[in-house]
Amino acid sequence: MADALKEKRQGLAKKFWLQRASSSMKKKGTEGEFTAKAKRAGFTKKDGSGDAQAYARHVLANKDDFDGETIKQAQFALNMGKMAKKKEE
């Protein structure tokens, strides 16, 4: 029985990982931080907002120029972009 409960909890943890990540960013106050970095770096969209996807590709192509936190944020941004694109289709 304990194994079944453990499996159920693991299944739920996998299902709700995005909600936990979002909640964690809100608590830390880091929500929108990567987009702000993109804007400061000159990666902007036509509406003037930061272009996180383009900046993420730039960061991952030039990993030696960025710290580990920015690289993780870039990978997360690309993953979220891919998820959003799949949802639109």
Walk me through the topology.
Layout: H1 2-15, H2 17-28, H3 33-40, H4 52-61, H5 68-88
Structure description:
By secondary structure, the chain is mainly alpha-helical. It has two domains: 28 residues, no CATH class; 58 residues, no CATH class. It is 73% helix and 0% strand. The chain contains five helices and no strands. 13% of the residues are buried. The model has no long low-confidence stretch (mean pLDDT 81).
Characteristics of this structure?
89 residues; mainly alpha; 73% helix; elongated
Shape descriptor:
elongated
Q: Specify Rg, calculated over alpha carbons.
A: 16 Å
Strand content: under 5%
Strand elements, count: 0
What oligomerization state is this entry in? single chain
Quick overview:
This protein has 89 residues and is mainly alpha-helical. 73% of the residues lie in helices and 0% in strands.
